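Readers of this paper often ask what the protein records in our data store actually look like. Below, we set out a record of this kind in full and without editing:
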Amino acid sequence: MCIRDSVVDDRLMEITHVIRAEEWISSTPKHVILYQAFGWPQPKWCHMPLLRNADRSKISKRKNPVSLSYYRRAGILPEALINFLALMGWSFGNDIELFSVRQMMEKFEFSGINLGGPVFDLVKLTWMNQTYMHKMDDERFAGYLREEIFSPQYLKALKPLVLERMSRFEQFVDHNSFFFNGALDYKALDIIPKGKTPDELSLMLGQLVELLDELYEWDSAHLQGLVEKHKDEIKWKPKDYFLTLRMITTGRKDSPPLFETLAVLGREMVRFRIRDYMNHLAATSIATPHA
């Protein structure tokens, strides 16, 4: 039923090219047969290789930031992300890596797609973004900061959280930088609670991320209910649980109210920071309980 419906939908929308992940290859013959049965002309079929992490593992929406909203919040310019994604499985040629959408449209050929699994290299994306940032004129630079980083909507959401901790406006960025950062630096933080092991903390965080993935209403009340229920289920002390979560998501021991902070940071950023810390925890290879 699902395959038939998708074929009918594509036909009604006059789809001429079906471009999707290689995981769909096995079902393509069924689509072809349905087109033949209906007497419709076939669209062009193209299956793209799956994106990979640096360790060649498949990118997962549960483990990796895959939402455009995350990269937008992290300050990645649209043209940099489009340029970067265009090179995931395709080459412009002549070792050219930076190009406009118009240039890509003129140059693109399906025959140029590389069937090997391309690596989603965040270092390269960062380099590309920096290059595009340096090309911005003064007006767009100021406008981008005003609309994307310090947008009126975001500042309005922050106001009730940050005013209690400020007496001068010059304190705003210093006290609240974690609201505008992407990844945090955990090296100087002593996060593992006393009496807990890295494995116990990793297990707790893994469970929490899965619960957050399933949370329908992303607001402070629902976040508090979910977190407190999980804390009780795994029998962690409130101080250990809440302080750990606060430090992982803000990089600080003190911050505005935890659940309101998580609500403003948003689902993608909270998930990313928890996963990022889990990777940091695994990389440190701590084998003994925190003392």
Remarks:
- The longest helix spans residues 267-284.
- The chain has a mean pLDDT of 89.
